[in-house]
Amino acid sequence: MLTHNKYSLTMDEIKERVLQRYDPDDLIESLDISSEEILDRFEDKLIARLEQFEEELQDDTRPDTDEEDEAYTGSFY
After folding, report:
1. What CA–CA distance (Å, rounded) separates 60 from 4?
2. What is the distance between the alpha carbons of residues 41 and 70, in angstroms, rounded to a whole number?
3. In this model, does residue 65 exceed pLDDT 70?
């Protein structure tokens, strides 16, 4: 049990209060958690959703047809 001032809080109570006060981005920043740490700790979730990530990563490597059209300055004839 942790004590602060006159109050004694359990770890579960502290976590509940932190969750109420911080949004996920602020919590990650406050805890100084990196993306690598997230993937290391939650590798099982990454594996469970691997197809989704693979599809999104493949989409990132495919050229965007709009950009190709804009970049093309030659003529067909």
Report:
1. 49
2. 42
3. no
Paired tokens of 35: 């993306």
- Site of tokens 């594996």: 47
Distance between CA atoms of residues 25 and 52, nearest Å: 22
What does the domain layout of the chain look like in residue ranges?
Answer: 1-32, 34-63
Rounded-to-integer distance, Cα 24 and Cα 48, Å: 22
Look at the chain and count its residues: 77
Task: Tell me what the pLDDT averaged over the chain comes to.
Answer: 83
In sequence order, what DSSP letters do the residues of 9-63 get, joined into one string?
E-HHHHHHHHHHH--HHHHHHHTT--HHHHHHHTHHHHHHTHHHHHHHHHHHHSP
Asked whether the predicted pLDDT for residue 39 surpasses 80, the reply is yes
* This model's pTM is above 0.85: no
